[in-house]
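Input chain follows. Return structure tokens only.
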Amino acid sequence: MLPLTCGNLTINDQDLVRAAKSWPKLKKLRLADEGRWITPARPKITLDGFASLLLHCPDLCSLGIGMDATSYSVVTPEVPGSGVVNTKITTLSVGASLIESPLAVAAFLSSVLPNLKNILSKVDTGYVTAASETHRVKWTKASKYLRDVDMIRKQERTRLGIYY
């Protein structure tokens, strides 16, 4: 397990990809999912960087990561994450990550993490702002939508005669 919780450390997608390529056998990672972001800057890891992490670390089975998921605001017909899939992760800890569209993010996560059952969000109780509480509520909605999207996929597979 590699726990990285440095509040003033800024890691972007490119940094994450370089690191992930060095950790192909990584099974557990905790990266800034312990609450709020201490720096005034927005988190630099996006869902694209998240998908790259999954691509380069296929053995990941436990993941906590702080990120900016605001770039995914609509559900599109394109396959999220360029088709990357990790079936080992069932719970994702996102800390106080940023989010705008819970449905779009749930659709993305459901595609790249098809066995994901729960999204954990955490707000530093000593420093709760209206914005951080809004993000926590949206992550809670994303977790609920995740279950809905999963059920819709199961119904569609049943309709098509595809069983997993």
